[in-house]
């Protein structure tokens, strides 16, 4: 087991009014603290999803664990080949290398605090996702940056089945 020694010596304080928001309804992402702000300790965002919206397709991180804390609402989360329904106050932590995905549960909204540790510089990844959503760059461009952001896409029949059941 290795210990990550974060390299920062002042508290990180992010006021909600100052946090950058990317995306638009039904999926918005509030960029809270990137790896560079926390000395590599973590990266954190808040994702708000409405009306059963998808959050992230199946992927894994080779180097980081990902924590999902449900601030409000109900979400479906893929963890390996298990699809978990999480509600306000629930916590799911996915270890490095394990496939995961998330979206608001069918017909529901979800407000999720997401923490990746150790941190990976990710804010630019979320800005890239926004450019894809707005048609400024093609979706295939994500494949070119998956290693850079430690966001390796994969497939999951369990996830596809769970999400298609909501249609």
Main features:
mainly beta, 14% helix, ten-stranded antiparallel beta sheet, 167 residues, 10 strands, globular
- Element order, helices and strands? EEEEEEEEEHHEH
Helix content bin: 10-25%
The chain-level mean pLDDT equals 94
List the uncertain runs. Answer: none
Alpha carbon gap, first and last residue: 43 Å
The global form is globular
| Beta strand count | 10
Q: Main sheet, how many strands, which sense, barrel?
A: 10 strands, antiparallel
Number of continuous helical runs:
3
Secondary-structure content class: mainly beta
Q: What amount of the residues lies in strands?
A: 35-45%
Rounded Rg: 15 Å
Account of the 3D structure:
The protein has about 170 residues and is mainly β. It contains 3 helices and 10 strands. Strands 1, 2, 3, 4, 5, 6, 7, 8, 9 and 10 form a 10-stranded antiparallel beta sheet that branches. About 15% of the residues lie in helices and about 40% in strands. β5 and β6 form a beta hairpin. The chain is globular, with a radius of gyration of 15 Å.
């Amino acid at each position: 087991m290795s210990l990550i020694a974060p390299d920062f010596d002042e508290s990180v304080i992010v006021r909600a009014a100052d946090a950058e928001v990317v995306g638009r309804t039904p999926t918005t992402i509030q960029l809270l603290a990137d790896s560079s702000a926390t000395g590599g300790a973590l990266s954190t965002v808040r994702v708000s999803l409405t009306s059963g919206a998808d959050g992230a397709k199946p992927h894994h991180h080779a180097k980081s664990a990902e924590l999902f804390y449900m601030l409000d609402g109900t979400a479906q989360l893929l963890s390996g080949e298990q699809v978990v329904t999480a509600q306000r106050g629930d916590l799911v932590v996915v270890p490095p290398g394990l496939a995961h995905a998330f979206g608001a549960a069918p017909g529901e909204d979800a407000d999720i605090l997401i923490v990746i540790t150790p941190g990976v510089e990710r804010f630019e990844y979320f800005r890239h996702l926004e450019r894809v959503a707005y048609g400024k760059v093609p979706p295939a461009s994500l494949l070119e940056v998956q290693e850079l952001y430690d966001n390796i896409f994969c497939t999951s029949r369990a996830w596809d089945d769970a999400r298609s059941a909501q249609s």
